[in-house]
Q: What sequence folds into this?
């Protein structure tokens, strides 16, 4: 078996070596396992840089017992329930957002960390774009979501969920625009938070 030297930053090496030790593996074994995994991801068309984001998202999902369904199925189910009880369905999504805030705050203590975590979740969800940026005034943000449902009903439910999450982070929605699959939100930090 051939051996090769690889140059890495000292800080990266120290972190890598401490993780090998924590895993009770030799540096050789840990390096082979890690590099082999990264090579497999790349050879199958994956991007190794997305791996950490996926791991973060999955670790949050494990806390809430998620069941995965195809998005078309969920859209149809939401539309059917929405037609029967619009306010009830919107309240369910709002309540879900309120319940998840505590779990999300463990992984993301503020809105900037939540935006980063949201990008990780976008890898697992049918979202095409999730962008959070600073607003025009201090303490305000703008959120743009593309791919928030294939029907207006599911997009409105996604907005109810998002509004509750924002409220849990002490943001108030000042203005919003919703179209099928797209949401634009302008929100500001509550003054007494």
A:
């Amino acid at each position: 078996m051939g051996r090769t030297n690889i140059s890495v930053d000292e800080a990266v090496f120290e972190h890598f070596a401490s993780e090998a030790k924590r895993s009770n593996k030799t540096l050789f074994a840990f390096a082979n396992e890690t590099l082999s995994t990264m090579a497999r991801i790349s050879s199958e068309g994956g991007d190794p840089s997305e791996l950490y984001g996926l791991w973060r998202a999955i670790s949050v999902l494990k806390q809430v017992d998620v069941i995965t369904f195809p998005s078309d199925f969920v859209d149809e189910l939401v539309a059917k329930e929405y037609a029967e009880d619009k306010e009830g369905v919107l309240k369910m999504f709002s309540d879900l957002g309120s319940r998840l805030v505590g779990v999300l705050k463990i992984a993301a203590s503020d809105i900037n960390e939540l935006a980063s975590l949201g990008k990780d979740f976008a890898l697992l969800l049918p979202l095409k774009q999730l962008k959070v940026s600073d607003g025009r005034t201090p303490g305000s943000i703008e959120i743009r979501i593309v791919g928030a449902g294939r029907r207006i009903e599911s997009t409105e439910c996604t907005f109810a969920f998002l509004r509750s999450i924002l409220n849990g982070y002490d943001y108030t929605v000042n203005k919003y625009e919703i179209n099928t699959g797209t949401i634009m939100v302008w929100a500001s930090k509550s003054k007494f938070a």
User: Anything to note?
Assistant: The beta strands are 129-134, 140-146, 171-179, 182-189. The chain has a mean pLDDT of 87. The chain has two domains: 10-46, 52-189. Residues 52-189 form a domain with the Muramoyl-pentapeptide Carboxypeptidase; domain 2 fold (CATH 3.30.1380).
